[in-house]
Amino acid sequence: MAPPEIELIRVAGTHREVGLQMGEAGRERVRHTVGSSWDELPSGRTKQDQLDLAAEYRAFTAPRLPWLLEELDACAEGAGVEPLELFATSIEEIWYEPRPPRTAGRCSDLVAGPAATADGHLLVGHNNDLAPEAEHQITALEIRVPGDPVVLQLGGIPWLSVGWNSAGLSLTGNELSPNDERVGISRSHQVLEMMRARSLPEMVAMALRPDRASSYNNVLTSADGGVANVEGSATDAEVTDLDDRGHLAHTNHYVAARMLPYEGDPEYAPSSNTRYERACELLAGQSPASITMNRLRDLLADHETKPQSLCKHPEFGTPRSKTVFWCVADVTDGRIRYGRGNPCDSVSQEYVFEEYPGREAAA
Fold this sequence. Notes:
Distance between the termini: 39 Å
Strand order of the largest sheet: 1-4-5-6-7-8-9-10
CATH class of the largest domain: Alpha Beta
CATH topology of the largest domain: Penicillin V Acylase, Chain A
Order of helices and strands: EHHHHHEEEEEEHHEEEEHHEEEH
Number of strands: 14
Mean pLDDT: 95
């Protein structure tokens, strides 16, 4: 039986106003996330240690992203939690030190550029793997702030796992394990900034900001067909594009030769590589100019390499990891399909941006 649809919450106004609305709408979820976080403290660290460390990141972030602090503090107010505690839960870097093995896995991305698709559009597919209990917390947020592009994001409240905006930009990607993390702008805050961008070069520059604390592998694409895969750490990065057939795949380990020295979880990397190689194999097996949104969802639903399959199920042998949501975006047209749970058994929902680059000209 397919899981229920993902709720779409629409918020609008100033950053403070949208923060309040998110906190009020997600009150129980935010309170649960903040309250349960202290049960998973890194070894040897107290709650006060964690808050003191979060305060260092907050002091660094406040003058650089003041709008973000305004939004997060308002979200905390709306949910009825302490602002620093909410901020602490958002700093992924401080929850992985000392770093535990990441055998649960995270995400898989498949991109088909215009030369590889049936209609010449750019398509992006993404599976998000988390603990099974995270599945019911997934929310879709539409955010409208005057002066910024309209944003649609999937993830928690207020956190972004993947997102798109009305300027024609798409952000998906994969969590990495960089070994050079430091106090700076958290990767979980970088992606929120990147959704305010109006061009792919601006988005890439935000991904490469030199004061970052670490980095995801950011899969960035634009409605005009641009693609930038930013495989980064705190201090270095490699930016790549589609291959010769118009394909791109990435999972949760460093692939670029330049970035291999930054791999902080070499024990998990082979598991991620199983998904990566399978994704590359599936894309390579498609006929030229043939991939559609439906076909890309079929590829995301692949079980061939279980338990480390693209479509991950606990019953395959990963009890602490499953695909909690999937999405396929037509970045050229501003059309996103997504669903809760596994792509092999999920209700498909669709969001289409009202205004989008090039749509009037194409019409």
